[in-house]
Amino acid sequence: MNVPSDGSVVARVRASRAVPAAASTVAVCLVVVALLGAGVRADFGPQMRLDAVVSEALYAGDHRAVSLNLLLEVLTTPGLTWFRLVVFLPVLVLLVLRRAWWTAAWLVMAISLIGPLNTLFKIYFGRVRPDFEHGGARLDSLSYPSGHSSGIATLVTVALIMAWPLLAARARHWALAAGVVLVLLVGLTRMWLGVHFLSDVVGGWSLGVAWSLLTALVFGAFAEGRAALRPVS
């Protein structure tokens, strides 16, 4: 009779915990997106006032230095669609070479569809940008939820889920910390640039995390799942 190793038992226990935790997180994030979106459509006073106060406090100003503006534009770049594609295209090639078809399919689904999904939400909620002259007022696109925020949340969440089984415990802590800092930084740049409200950023983060985890659950990207990566022996 084959007796499962301690490592196998631990992996199965972690997998049994990861799936319900991910499902719960998806539910919470979708509730956040829905509640903030409802507040936007209803022009909910407390939410609108908080957005206005935070926007005024964080906005870098219409007459900010060119160097500062350039720095903010660079820092906000990881939230763009092309940045996600550049980051994950080599990963996709490696997955195909390893014949990790389920992981590759999950990667393509999660990364390529968050942009169109975010656009659909923007059209539905129909919020205009902040009216700063050199911020949101110069853009024709809608505001809620923030596409940069949902994009970077998706990039980081997918990267962490994919790399988690391959990382040592200490490396996981550093990767998680770096990911959180990057997500926060991109979100803050959207408000420093005056192109999004606080609700837009939080809604974008929530949408990105929810979408990444939902697709991970569907494709089985968690430990012991068919799309989960395993160290090459």
What are the defining features of this structure?
72% helix; globular; mainly alpha; 233 residues
Give the SSE layout.
Elements: H1 6-42, H2 45-58, H3 66-76, H4 81-97, H5 101-125, H6 147-163, H7 169-192, H8 198-219
In short:
The protein is mainly α and 233 residues long.
Walkthrough of the structure:
This protein is mainly α and 233 residues long. It has one domain (14-219). The protein is built from 8 helices and no strands. It has helices at residues 6-42, 45-58, 66-76, 81-97, 101-125, 147-163, 169-192, 198-219. The two termini are 24 Å apart.
Determine the fraction of residues in helical runs and give it as a percent range. over 70%
Overall geometry comes to globular
Mean pLDDT across the residues is: 93
The number of helical runs is: 8
List how many beta strands DSSP finds: 0
Strand percent estimate:
under 5%
Based on helices, strands and strand pairing, what is the structural class?
mainly alpha
Total domain modules: 1
Unreliable parts:
1-7
The major sheet is characterized as: none
Radius of gyration: 19 Å
